[in-house]
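Appendix B, example 12.
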Amino acid sequence: MFQIGNIDKNRNAHAAHTRTAVRAVIFCGEKLLLVKTNCGDYKFPGGGVRKGEGREAALLREICEETGYTDVTVGPCVGTAVEFWEDSSGDGTFFQMDSYYHVCRMESSASGRQALDAYEAGMKFQAVWVDVKEAAESNRKLLNAAMCGKKRELLAEIPWLERETQALERIAGSPLCRLALEVWECGAILRTADRGQAAVGEKAGHANFVTAYDKQVQRELRRRLTEAVPDAAFVGEEEDAHASIAHGPAFIVDPIDGTTNFIKDYHCSCISVGMTVDGAPQLGIVYNPYLDELFTAERGQGAYCNGTRIHVSEEPLANGLVLFGTSPYYEELAGKSFQMAYDYFSKALDIRRSGSAALDLCSIASGRAELYFELRLSPWDYAAGALIVEEAGGSVTTVDGGAIAFDRPCSIKATNGKIS
């Protein structure tokens, strides 16, 4: 969701080696669990990953050491920061610090004692719950004072100040990190589903199925998402009537995109959540629980997979893969769909049919394929994925080249922007 790069002054430094750190983004309502120091700044709980230690284990250890809390679930990576610092050896070399911000869930208030090292104790690390905007504004005042020379010493005392200020401001300005955790947690319903209890039903159209899990995931998403953004309308696939998205924020949700795949245990299904504001796409989240891939995008902020920036490919159609959907609920479109697929097949490396429009769109966004088309889809199939493609540098239109709609079905053509 965010990427902070080379924020140190030594932007052209050559790194002799790389160190890895982890940071925890833990919400309780509008408040974040942060660590306050005796300089008056706020930082995210976290620190360096030790040799042979995984990022999740390191983060749990750091949260416990700095805050005392012991009952935490580590969720997906939602941002990264890259810094270059002069090595403490004094030989003039530099090291690169890669920080990974993971959104986490506090499961209970269970806690032990902090285990601060001498430096942290000297800085009087204190775990506090603070409003995210308040923390961002407080840090920004300190950083501005340091940058203009009034408190220049702060940059040496709290070297993380610029990094943490930027991260706080990005998180304060968008609900995307909070929403990503909710979608990620709902993915567990798909991973642990008992298909013998799926209670498969049929809707209008050929092979148009719904399961008890579609409805369960949608209920859970409605509860979680509307708690995070209370004034948002909710448009879910498994509803008989849909709210208007014309004014204000609105969620457009497919609880299980690829239901037939889900029924067949094919492991190519996902949760898709798009958010529009006044009818225009603003946020997109697609989560594949089987590969644990969380794709996200925010208008004007780029597209990401598990916190790492993604881009469409640069390949022409001749060197590309073509993905397509058959619009199976509309049998009258089958002939044209397969004819178009054959035409593209004759010009590309090969074609693929996954059964999930949202995942196909994410494949275009991440450069795994170059073109995707389907002759008829509903907005919940593409509301998130279309934005992810565009923020990754791609193009999304109708098959005829027009603007796609978010309040009614339409055709979709997504490309890397190099293919007409």
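The chain has a mean pLDDT of 92. Residues 212-228 form the longest helix (17 residues).
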